[in-house]
Amino acid sequence: MQFDRDEAVKKLKKKLSDKRFVHSIGVEYTAACLAMTYGYDVEKARIAGLLHDNAKCFTEEEKLKKAKKFGISINSSEYANPDLLHGKLGAYYAKEKFGIKDQEILDSIIYHTTGRPKMTLLDKIIYVADYIEPNRKMLDELPAIRKEAFTDLDKCVLHILRNTLEYLWTRDYAIDELTQETYDYYSKAE
Prior knowledge:
Oligomer: single chain
Radius of gyration: 16 Å
Low-confidence stretches: none
Helix content: 55-70%
Shape: globular
Distance between the termini: 41 Å
Strand content: under 5%
């Protein structure tokens, strides 16, 4: 099945809040810009960016219930913070409801929140695009991170990981093991 962007946009517009829909379009176009910058397939980046949050609309209880129903593994961090499941559920829905068969696109959706060691170029593009897209709330370091995104993607990924972990530590939120592993991996590579 060929990906039909117009149909996907219609489905997402019905499914997501207005704010989440605008964010998804922003990530789609930011991912395309990053793909052009780094010589990656623009269409694949756009699809992954557009669909990355397609399961964000469910409540935490629904996310847990759906993950169990679809046989999606749930780690301790995801039990503590079921919103983290939206990546795994998003990949499931991208495949089942939007016809995406490309594993690289599906993986970038799974890992767009946590990252993972040895991220692919598409993983990094979606991870960064999700953080820097134009509709994001302005954070202190966001202008510098946005500039970094187009000059040194690995440095940018590490910067975002560091900011994410600091944010979670200061609020005493559960930290997904994969986010910590990803930070450790990229900080050693620096």
